Amino acid sequence: MTSADNLRAFRRDGRIVIVGASLAGLRAAECLREEGFTGSLTMIGDELGEPYDRPPLSKQVLTGWVPADGTTLPRRRDIDAEWLLGVPASGLDLATDHVRLADGREVPFDRVLIATGVRARPWFVESEAELDGVFVVRTREHAEGLQRALAAGPSRVLVIGAGFTGSEIASVCRERDIPVTVAELGPYPLVGALGAMIGEVAADMQRAHGVDLRCGVKVTRLEGDAQGRLRRAHFDDGSTVDADVAVVALGGIRNTEWLRGSGLAAGVWGIACDTGCRAMDLNGLITDDVFVAGDVARCPNPVYEYRLISLEHWANAVEQAEIAAHNMIHGQADRWPHLSIPRFWSIQFGVNIKSVGVPTFADEVVVTQGSVSDHRFVAAYGYQGRVTAAVTFNNAKWLDHYRQLIETAAPFPPPCPTPDQPVDTKPVPVDFPGPLLLAQGATVVVTGHDPGERRVTAAHQHHR
Amino acid sequence: MRVVVDLSRCEGYAQCAFLAPDAFRLHGEEALMYDPEPDDALRDRVLRAAAACPVQAILVDRLEGRRIPVEAARS
After folding, report:
1. Can you tell which superkingdom this protein's organism belongs to (chain B) (predicted)?
2. Which of A48, A71, A319, A381 is at a distance of 20 to 30 A from A24, taking alpha carbons?
3. Cβ neighbourhood burial of A131 (10 Å; 0-12, 13-18, 19+)
4. A174-189 pLDDT, tens per residue?
């Protein structure tokens, strides 16, 4: 049998297992059927119920507008799958091609897609995490519990961590007129993702909305009363805050532990894969039958010097799911590369914050349009003289313009495309906390619009 | 009915908020908040909003009424 015959037989009656029944898993399943896969499809998920959307959990659900169980994802088509829900996968055996479930069942496959995502990082002291009033937000049960606690009118909410989720939750508290303290280890909110200049804007925004923002502090202890209810939080500078609700928003942990011993290159940063979403093994060899998509994937991006990048972005999960699904049922010559420029959004304090590109891949940042003090502007990020990212505050219509600048490795700083040129357009150092991970590498440009047409070519232009 | 908006694509034109204000609302100047499971009574308005979106960011369930419940297949 030729490989073309094999592929035809696989598409007709092969077995595909998708581990992870959330956004990426569902979209991949729909694409597999859309592209003509008629074999057996099994969806494995640790949560019960149909796949649901998570971004509304920290926004519409917490404001009380939408119920926590009201974010079920719409379907693009029927996927005719067997659903194994409520039990997590506990192992992957690539010698016999089986997924092992925590209850001992074994599920055989010909090809498998790993889309197990991320879980919330819990508070580091288990007994304190179990206090009544201490929450994380990742699942709809989490959001449901926190929404009820907010509706009960707490005297004060403490948000630990001022990343995007923590900032969004602080925003909801202010919208509900609940006093809120935000504790952030770094010098500003959002600083790890967007740098010091934008972080300063985010800090102003929080304080203008009445948030008690405390930066450069660490919460050392959560204190409960005799009934096991949260009462007070202690900081490393000796101060305390009385609060009856604490939200631990310290980011996520990628669900890769179940792959220990599988032989895949899986770890805390995710599962390494190629731009075709094929998983890499421990030796750095690309596997043929294991694919990865969504928050748990760690994929090289040619625009960022082929660095392996893991993204917890909604659009990235959808796009990788489509690429992975396509490649699972196509031969080498017809495979698609995932060459998307990352896009992200956050809604907080009445402002629509969006980004394109990788803001942490930058040495300088400059406001290119609008006014920072009005919270309506665009900032461009540059690395060694080319545009690598942009962030918009209430200026989303310009994002696509900057995406094109990134894809064409346009010179940094870019000219202001509108008459609303800001007063101060001098680039400043981007100033991220932590070590810089940048190096001199290949500069490429991306062309094509549809996934099947997108390609990379090396750019022989010399910036500074 | 079920709806999801690709907010990385949404540019805040707010056509949806005019056409189906019970399902789509602006938060501030351009940030969109929406009800992912709006009442079926809003169906026509939501479909009109989805059709009118200049960047086609609104996805409405295409399986309405012929859903095979996940629960039925759960082992």
Report:
1. Bacteria
2. A381
3. buried
4. 999 999 999 999 999 9
